[in-house]
Specification:
Blueprint: H1 2-15, H2 25-32, H3 51-65, H4 70-81, H5 96-121, H6 134-145
Length: 146
């Protein structure tokens, strides 16, 4: 009998939805600032004044209040829109080029600057040509006159 009562209490508690978690606006802003607004495309969801961005912020708030982590909320939007929705592209695959290229460009640029500076500051070397002796000079003059 006691087990039946415990089982019914457990069933009733399992049917009740979990209480929503209070979410700070700072957490909502942090997650929304990592997502691209689908209307503005150059602003984050947190900064965009569009109605769509407001709806997306509401979804972020609801999902966080439901107990999802910020990573799960980002994953939800990536599943829905693809990697494009993230303002910072993921560091994998083809997007890795976006993260590596600036560093490569800086290194190449510094190498070019160093090479140019080296050429500008290099002292001219003295000529190593040997002077022509008098006999050879006379022979060249005769061949030209002939």
């Amino acid at each position: 009998m006691l087990s039946a009562v415990l089982a019914s209490v457990g069933a009733v508690s399992a049917q009740q939805p979990a209480k929503p978690v209070s979410v700070s606006e700072q957490v909502v802003y942090e997650v929304a600032s990592e997502l691209r607004c689908v209307v503005c495309q150059n602003l984050s969801v947190a900064d965009s004044p569009s109605e769509m961005a407001g709806q997306m912020r509401a979804i972020v708030r609801e999902r966080l209040a439901a107990g999802e982590s910020p990573a799960q909320v980002r994953a939800y939007f990536v599943d829905k829109y693809g990697d494009w929705i993230l303002l910072a592209p993921p560091r994998r695959g083809f997007s890795l080029i976006v993260w590596i290229f600036p560093f490569v460009a800086v290194v190449v640029g510094l190498g070019i600057v160093a090479l140019v500076l080296r050429r500008w500051t290099r002292r001219p070397r003295p000529s190593t040509a040997k002077p022509i002796d008098a006999d050879m000079s006379e022979r060249i003059r005769r061949e030209i006159e002939a």
